[in-house]
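Appendix C reproduces, verbatim, an entry submitted by the partner laboratory led by Prof. M.T., so that reviewers can inspect both the input and the predicted structure.
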Amino acid sequence: MDPEPAHPCQQRVTHPAITENKYLSAVLAHIKEEQEKAAPPPKVKPVSAKNVYKKTGRRPRGRASKMEAYYEGCRKERVEEASEFVND
């Protein structure tokens, strides 16, 4: 008993199989070209952008303190004293 060979010695290939293989090789070459192109870097958004956070800019601190008038008077006195000191 002779062992049967893994691949038969005579293989017949039909013309449509050859044509199909040519089309397949062209498609595979196109796919390879596309894969070799450099992929654009992924766009990573910060967490604030994912949450649709939008900056509103600076806002005033709210209602002025009752002491604000006193502080303003002190500032004026300091400026007047400094200007007197420089003028002398």
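Residues 80 and 86 are 10 Å apart (CA to CA). Additional entries are available on request from the coordinating office.
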